[in-house]
Amino acid sequence: MIYLDKKILLALSLVATLVLPACRKDFLEVVPKGKLVATNTSDYDQLLNSMTLTLLYPHIESGDEAACVEPYFSGNAAAFQQNAFHWADDIWLASDQQTEWTLLMRWVYQCNKIINEVANSAGGSETQKKSILAEALVSRAWCYFMMINYYGQPYNAATAATDAGVPKILTADVTETKFSRATVKEIYDLIVSDLTLAIPDLPVTLTNRTRSTRAAAEAMLGKTYVFMGQFDKALPQLNAAITHISNSSIPVGLYDFQKELAPGGSFTPVNPYTGPARGNLNIDQEVLFLKRILNLDTYYGSFIVLTPATVALYTTGDYRRQFLTGNPLGEFTKPYPNGMMAVWGSGGATNVGVSVPDVYLLQAECKSRLNDLPGAVADLEAFRRMRMPVAEASIPANIAGDQVALTKFVLDERIREFPLQGYRWFDMRRLSVDPVYKSTVNYTHTLYDMSGAVVKTFTLRSQRLTFRIPLYIAQQNPDLPQIP
């Protein structure tokens, strides 16, 4: 049996922070002197290339598809991971100064610098400058989508104009030290505006997964509308994204899992210790816009697993089951109890930018919610045929003809597709304020031991669907009130 020292796990998960500067009071500061020197259009283009990696992932442990197992949980989980699973009021300790808040807001600073300055840069054509500006708008929109879904209250049309969001920062001024929360509506309006402005000037052809295209922005705008509950506005954007996905000079689209898991396929050979060979997101054709997090602990830490109820969502022949393992890392004789399974084969990384499967599943959800049941069924069955034998891909007739049942089926498909990747936490937030589907959110986490006995349970309070601002930020910025 293998246990990984907590210090080793933390070092692995935070290895790339070595390239980041030490944090000071101003969470926008990105270089020691607080200035980025950019003059030429090419300089601003290079700034976009620096925004590809994010490291922190408390939303993975927060999802309701997750359970944890002792002794791995106490032995391997870092403090922030334990707090996230507990749904504790504060995930980060006061001494933690490298958080998702810090990195995302630094990226906002860089985006603002590009947005405000690239038009006056030297050496580039107007077309190039417009394209770089558009990409910066997309990256800022993505940063704010992540920020509002960490630290803002879930979008509720009736209260969004007064609900607490996050600071709305539109300049690259590192001398600014006074920040306040914008409302949830203001932040979502900014995301919609940025993406809408960007789309006409974005490249149509995808040549680099770390750079945004028209399809990526359309997908992001569609997803934003889904999170606002505006499915009629979301569907045309998602349809357009799927149309434009084919405009690519590199492979982009859904994998056929049966083919790729067969001998000679892209996911082979299967390593007996780490699972199928699908770890390089830079060449993964299901990545449309790459924003990477290190997700080592879904397997290498051995402490976080899928609940028995989540494992039961998969049919026997579902090829995605091959990305699940019943054994802790290096343990072949004592599997997890109660049929629980860990996620492996991902290489310790997850894309939280724009994922092709996410676009297709959001499209099916929108059609179902808009009562286009035949369209939703057709889309969903086509998707499932890429994930399982044809005989298992069909939607049962009693579900296919019932709008509520079909929408719930799509939501379950999202869990099957994105186990322990963080997608579920964001879905939980939006569903928690949905009058029809709020019952699909589970508010209990369970910690087991290896015999299957319950060690402890934790209950999610509705307030903790919103993360509290990291303590070191809150202590230094009194004008940013915490959500209780």
UniProtKB/TrEMBL annotation:
Q: What is its main location?
A: membrane
Task: Identify the keywords attached in UniProt to this record, alphabetized.
Answer: Cell outer membrane, Membrane, Signal
Instruction: Tell whether Metal-binding is among the UniProt keywords.
Output: no
Q: Identify the stretch annotated as signal peptide in this record.
A: none
Q: Which InterPro entries match?
A: SusD-like_N, SusD_RagB_dom, TPR-like_helical_dom_sf
Q: Per the record's keyword annotation, is Membrane included, yes or no? A: yes
Give the UniProt subcellular location, in the record's own words: Cell outer membrane
Query: RagB/SusD domain location, by residue?
Result: 358-432
What Gene3D superfamilies does this protein map onto? Answer: 1.25.40.390
Q: Which domain of life is it from?
A: Bacteria
Q: Which GO terms describe its cellular component?
A: cell outer membrane
Location of the SusD-like N-terminal domain: 26-225
What family is reported? Belongs to the SusD family.
Q: What is this protein called?
A: RagB/SusD family nutrient uptake outer membrane protein
State the organism named in the record: Chitinophaga eiseniae
